[in-house]
Design brief:
heterodimer, A: 323 residues, alpha+beta, five-stranded antiparallel sheet, two-stranded antiparallel sheet, 7 strands, 56% helix, 11% strand, B: 209 residues, mainly alpha, 10 helices, 71% helix, elongated
């Protein structure tokens, strides 16, 4: 055994506690050969003796008798209280019935409160959902409601204050154009996305049956043909084209329009467009003269509604007037 | 069944819980001295030791169901409760200035060292009482986690396993703490002896001169 091993066993050796006999003999042999470890062992033994002296001198100490008296009194009082509680906990049959009745009444009241709370929570949830729905609808309609600049998108189905409805029956040609438009959109969508995007079939069908709900029409990769005053959109996006067609048909039910007049010099009126947008504007009547149209000078200060066909490049390609 | 000295602690507790005051008295008589001494050796104040002893057994009266026999002996449980009480008291008392012996005597509470003086051989007893007081002060000066190990293993002669059950730690922890506590005690006793030697160092020739 070396000094390090001796150090780890010195306390047990000094205390004289039970330990492995071989370890104890090894420690004693090391202490005989190592003066420093022998001195440490002697010091530890002195400490053990001192501690035992302290312990022996305090062995006679105990808690004062008053502590025992207090504790016994507290114990008896506790037993008396628990005995009274036990007596109270075992009443007569009448008392038991009253307790059962009271418990049932309390339970019934709790049940009623619980039911009322659940009903209130459900009603609050429904009210919250309704408020959210109304808010979303208001948020969707607010762009068209805010169009007080007399610029109205043609594709929207929401009636705009800038474009009041006029009780004019729609021409049959527009209805037919709408039907052609919707069918063309369906066929084109089916050809393009038959295998890759089967969900578009449902979209096109839904678009042909349901009017668009957006105030701003989406006309990505669309082609507009100016044909006899009717805008026909052969759209890549079937839903958008169908929405446009439905919207145009609805709008034309209440308005009469002129033919499209080309605004770009040298461009044919029926030149196809890759993309475009139809914008409703109000123009002074004097603008009619600039297009070579007859003008009533007495009403020159009034305005007239018109649809401007904007191309994908942002330029106005054609215009038609609305009555 | 009446309480008798042959009953184990657990049996006495069961009788006590059933309302047997004699069982409670027997259990108290069996365990109160150890609890009281443990508290006294841990905090050095008889008043606190008395309070701690009372609180430990009051807890046994109130909440005897808190004891779980599967987790250890009842004595270990009582020591554990006493230890928690002592540590709580020490934490409270830490913010107060310790009273001097004279003040304590005026207040009616005597210091523990007065119990340790015998009158048969005044010189031997004086040396012995000085030694005991020095060791006791050295133990009280130890950090609490070392002090409790010294008190349990050295002054109460518990095994490492019993002390570990009281303290709720591993046996190896008890062993290593005891080694460290004893080293600290040796250093402090050596320092105290050095101070005593310095104060009593004199040249006898000059006395006779």
């Amino acid at each position: 055994m070396n000094c390090q091993q001796f150090t780890s066993h010195i306390v047990e050796a000094a205390r004289g506690r039970m330990m492995d006999a071989a370890t104890r003999d090894g420690a004693m042999r090391h202490a005989e050969t190592c003066a420093a470890c022998a001195a440490r062992l002697a010091q530890e033994r002195n400490l053990t003796n001192a501690l035992r002296t302290v312990a022996a001198n305090m062995n006679g100490l105990s808690a004062p008798a008053r502590v025992e008296a207090k504790l016994l009194a507290a114990f008896r009082e506790s037993r008396a209280n628990s005995g009274a509680a036990t007596t109270n906990a075992a009443p007569s049959h009448v008392g038991q019935a009253a307790i059962v009745e009271t418990a049932a009444r309390v339970s019934s009241q709790r049940q009623r409160w619980r039911t009322a709370f659940v009903a209130t929570a459900i009603a609050a949830s429904l009210a919250l959902v309704a408020l959210l729905t109304l808010y979303q609808q208001f948020a969707q309609t607010s762009p068209s409601a805010g169009a007080k600049t007399n610029v109205v998108a043609q594709g929207g189905t929401e009636p705009s204050p800038a474009a009041p409805a006029v009780a004019v029956p729609s021409p049959p040609s527009d209805v037919a154009a709408t039907a052609v438009l919707a069918q063309r959109a369906r066929l084109q969508t089916a050809r393009r996305d038959d295998s890759a995007r089967p969900a578009r079939h449902d979209d096109a069908q839904r678009a042909s049956l349901k009017p668009a709900r957006t105030a701003t029409p989406k006309m990505i990769a669309s082609r507009q043909v100016i044909d006899g005053g009717s805008a026909i959109f052969a759209a890549g996006e079937g839903e958008s084209a169908a929405n446009q067609a439905g919207a145009a048909a609805k709008s034309n039910e209440a308005e009469s329009v002129t033919e499209f007049i080309p605004l770009v010099a040298g461009a044919p009126a029926a030149a196809p467009l890759e993309s475009g947008q139809l914008v409703r504007v109000q123009l002074p009547r004097s603008a009619l003269a600039s297009l070579g149209l007859p003008l009533n000078a007495e009403r020159g200060n009034e305005t007239v509604k018109a649809d401007v066909l904007l191309g994908g490049d942002g330029l106005a390609h054609a215009i038609r007037f609305v009555r | 069944m009446r309480a008798s000295p042959e009953h184990s602690d657990e049996e006495l507790l069961r009788l006590m819980t059933a309302g047997d005051a004699d069982a409670f008295a027997a259990l108290y008589a069996r365990r109160q001295a150890g609890i009281y001494r443990f508290a006294l050796q841990m905090c050095g104040s008889e008043g606190i030791a008395e309070d701690v002893t009372q609180e430990v057994f009051m807890m046994l009266v109130r909440d005897s169901h808190m004891y779980d026999p599967a987790r250890g002996a009842l004595s270990s449980y009582l020591y554990g409760v006493a230890r928690n009480q002592v540590l709580r008291r020490l934490e409270k008392e830490r913010h107060f200035v310790a009273m001097t012996d004279e003040t304590m005597e005026d207040g009616g509470t005597t210091n523990v060292s007065t119990h340790l003086v015998a009158a048969d051989d005044p010189l031997a007893e004086l040396a012995r009482s000085e030694l005991i007081e020095t060791v006791r002060q050295a133990v009280l000066a130890l950090p609490a986690h070392y002090r409790e190990v010294v008190v349990l293993c050295e002054l109460h002669e518990m095994s490492y396993a019993e002390a570990a059950a009281v303290l709720g730690c591993a046996v190896g922890t008890v062993r290593s703490r005891l080694h460290r506590a004893r080293s600290l005690l040796c250093e402090r006793l050596r320092e105290a002896r050095g101070r005593d030697a310095a104060t009593t160092d004199f040249d006898p020739l000059r006395c006779f001169a």
